[in-house]
Amino acid sequence: MKVSRISWPYPHQMPEKLLKACGDDFASIRNQVQDSLAHLYLIEGENTHVWVVTRGEELPEGKELVIVCAAGHGMKDVGQLLIDNAKRLGFDSIRYHGSAATHRLYSGYGFGGVEVERVYKVALGGV
After folding, report:
1. Does residue 41 come out as left (phi exceeding 0), alpha (psi in the -120 to 50 range) or beta?
2. How far apart are CA 94 and CA 85, in angstroms?
3. Span 36-69, pLDDT tens digits
């Protein structure tokens, strides 16, 4: 598989699936990538075309790779690639946010984990 780290593309070049995966956090995620606080990758293979945004975090219990969002097809293969590379880069864990449905889907890819938190957001108005 080919993994390419890329700059955040202009909005008209963004794949629709990645825009949907970013959801209401699109501007925040874009800014994190543009400020090098997170990284955007395109992972391509024979039957794989996945966009993924990641960032690393230092926690008291160790280094954590955060999957900010992911979209595309071939996630089953990409899940193992992310696990292998996180280990190679010295991360102690991987965290991703999602619904119970996302967890069930990822679990089928060998990328389930255990629930450790739920994330809620309160909109304060504005854009």
Report:
1. beta
2. 11
3. 999 999 999 999 999 999 999 998 988 999 999 8
CA-wise closest residue to 31 among 3, 61, 8, 11? 8
Cβ burial, residue 83 (10 Å; 0-12/13-18/19+): middle
**What would the 3-class secondary structure string for the chain be?**
CEEEEECCCCHHHCCHHHHHHHHHHHHHHHHHHHCCCCEEEEEEECCEEEEEEEEEEEECCEEEEEEEEEEEECHHHHHHHHHHHHHHCCCCEEEECCCHHHHHHHHCCCCCCCCCCCCCCCCCCCC
Residue for token pair 């984990």? 113
pLDDT for position 120: 65
Tokens for 34, please give them. 């543009």
- For the chain, the residue count is 127
